[in-house]
Amino acid sequence: MRHYFTRFITQPLTGIPKSITLTPRIETPLKSHYLIRKFSDTPQVSKPAQSHRVDEIVDELSVLTLLEISDLAEVLRQKLEIDEMPMMATSFDLKLEGGFDAGAKIKIIKEVRACTDLGLKEAKDLVEKAPTLLKKGVTKDEAEKIIGKMKEIGAKVIME
Questions:
Q1: CA 133 to CA 136: how far, in whole Å?
Q2: For the chain, N or C: smaller number of CB within 10 Å?
Q3: Tens digit of pLDDT for each residue in 87-110?
Q4: Which keywords does this chain's UniProt record carry (predicted)?
Q5: Within a 13 Å sphere around the CA of 17, how many CA atoms are in the beta-carbon half?
């Protein structure tokens, strides 16, 4: 069968009428070496061109002191009639305050271990040296849960 198939393909096309003309093939982008798109593994981000005016403002602002920047923010807030500046903090620090009674100390140590993954000795040392930083970089929801649990057992925790 293979021999017959090969022979069939290799035989000249004598039965095609002369009036049929073969059209040239149109190359597709995938077959043409110069049309193949080159992809990169790094993201290509188009950056909008900064205007000259924006560059000048940035240059002027970069030489201001922190006090001048604070005054500028206040003046802009008044001029644009903004009552409150939006809160930009997305993570908070929890601070364990001292002043809890000795009977609640064991419960507080257990809760500190649960929310910080500290060992017994580290949690005990942290509770004994209150006021101190309990947990850093916590979301608002998680911080409120921890504060609620600590209040229930007699500890005072503040969110900064």
A1: 7
A2: N
A3: 666 788 889 888 778 788 889 899
A4: Ribonucleoprotein, Ribosomal protein
A5: 2
